[in-house]
Each structure stands twice: as C-alpha cells, then as structure tokens.
Design a protein that fits this description.
Number of domains: 1
CATH class: Alpha Beta
Distance between the termini: 45 Å
CATH topology: Rossmann fold
Number of strands: 9
Largest sheet: 7 strands, parallel
Order of helices and strands: EHEHEHEEHEHEHEHHEHH
Number of helices: 10
C-alpha cells in the first residue's frame, strides 16, 4: 500500500517541487494550495507522468478549509502517513512601520497555519500508530540575522519551539516531527514576500538601511539553493530510519549555523552586518 502525503503551499517553490518528488517516488501525494487557479502546471505534469498526485484546495488560515480537506483525504485513504507543513511567506519592513494586523497575519499563516494542519492530522496518525510531520522552518528560525524581517523570524522561531515540544508529546504514538531549515531558496524570498504597507522608501527613516539590505542580497543569492534541493532533503528525511531533528539545506545555512556556534552574540551581529550590508563575503570556512 502506497504511503499518503499531504503537502501545503504546493502552487510553487518548495511545495511544488516536494509534491512532485514524493509522487515520483511512489507516495500518493495531495498537493494542496489556497488558490486553485495556480494548479494547472502541477496537474499537467502529474497527468503526463501518470503520477499518484491529486490537487486539493486547502487554506491554512481557514479552519473549515483545513478540516474539510483533511477529512476527505482520510475518508478516501483511511490514513495519512506524511504531512509537510510548507505554506508561508515573508513580511518585510521596519517594525515601526508594520501594522499589528500585518504582523498577526504573518503568524496566522506561518505559525497558526502549521498548528491547524498538524492538529487535523494527529488523530489519524495516532490511531494508525505512526506518521511523520515535517515543518519547513528556515535558517531564520534559529538565527535572527536580517533586519526588517522581525515578524518572519519570530514566526519561524515559534515553529522551532513548537516542533521541539510536540516531538516529546507524540513520541509514544510513533509520530515523528522533523524540521527542515533552508537558507536562501532561489526565487522564493521575493516571490513570497509582502512589504509592510506603512513603509515608504521616500519618507522612511529606515530607507537607507533597507537599501543596504537589498544590496546585500547579492551576496546571499550567490549561494542560493533551488527548491528541488529542499524537496530532496525532505525525501531523504522520509527515507532515513533515524532522521535528525534539524536538517539545514544549502551552503549558506551551513555557514550561518557554523558562525552561530563559534561566535559570540556581538561577533555574530558584526558578521551579519558585514555579510548582508557591507558585502565582505558570505561563506564561513
């Protein structure tokens, strides 16, 4: 019997690549997304390759949408073996110029969306006696390197703590919870980014520093990973008999974690400034 996987945020990027890779490896996969108008590409590939892949509408911000989708998948398959919590986005802008509503919405998708889908699959996994939940976090869930991503970093830090605690909660039921921690993933940051509406580059006191950060992205993109590399890491985790809790993806992620382990807080901040704004080099040997 083929395993059954549910992947959120599958209209593009990591979710898109992960859904296809799992289906190509004989896992019956439900590629879920909020906006079904973005499903044509993945449906076309699944049809051409005769994959066990279905597309389902699922908005992680909506209780009814989540429960309806998960209930139908369970009804059709009597099980869910894998959940990949991938849906999310970046809110970019100075905290002072970000509205509380924008910050709440960041958490609604990146954090509470993960809670919704996880709560929805736990009863099925618990009853069947096994399951794997993979939470796509970020290097930014361990290290708050970049300014103007305060809400994003906070939401990913929350995912890390949530995952650590939930592992202990569910281990008696043979349900494993895993973190994937990508560095910069090509195309995803800008494609999935929202800017704070209160930020005006012509008036903001933060405009100069924002410009420095955007210029510093050049040093990040040189070491970016394709979404397919993240997907491959997810597949490797699923195929491992004893996967690690944390699984970084990309040379930049390795470099950042190495710096975090070796440097003091002040040294880490200085390294981050030099890396992202002074462009003195990225990879830490």
């Amino acid at each position: 019997m083929a395993k059954v996987a549910v992947v959120t945020g599958s209209s593009s990027g990591i979710g898109y690549e992960t859904s296809l890779l799992l289906a190509r490896n004989q896992i019956k996969t439900y590629a879920t997304m909020r906006n079904m108008s973005k499903s044509d590409g993945i449906i076309k590939i699944a049809s051409e390759e005769n994959l066990q892949l279905d597309v389902a509408q699922l908005d992680v911000n909506d209780d009814l949408s989540v429960n309806k989708a998960i209930d139908k998948i369970v009804k059709d398959n009597d099980r869910i073996d894998i959940l990949v919590n991938n849906a999310g986005y970046d809110l970019f802008g100075p905290l002072e110029e970000s509205s509380l509503e924008e910050i709440k919405q960041q958490f609604e998708t990146n954090f509470f969306g993960v809670i919704r889908t996880t709560k929805a699959v736990i009863p099925t996994m618990r009853k069947q006696g096994n399951g794997t939940i993979i939470n796509v976090s970020s290097v930014g869930g361990k290290v708050g390197l970049l300014p103007f991503l305060t809400a994003y970093h906070a939401s990913k830090f929350a995912i890390e703590g949530f995952t650590e605690s939930l592992r202990q909660e569910l281990d008696d039921f043979n349900i494993n919870i895993i973190l994937i921690e990508p560095g910069y993933v090509s195309s995803s940051f800008l494609d999935n980014s929202k800017s704070a509406k209160g930020f005006d580059s012509n008036k903001s006191p933060y405009a100069k520093k924002v410009q420095q950060v955007f210029q510093g992205f050049e040093s990040i993109t040189a070491y970016s990973s394709h979404p397919s590399k993240v997907a491959q890491t997810i597949l490797d985790v699923l195929n491992s008999p004893n996967p690690e809790l944390r699984n970084p993806v990309g040379k930049d992620a390795d470099s950042i974690f190495k710096a975090r382990a070796e440097l003091s807080d002040k040294e880490m901040e200085q390294w981050a400034r030099e890396t992202y704004m002074d462009k003195k080099g990225f990879i830490r040997q």
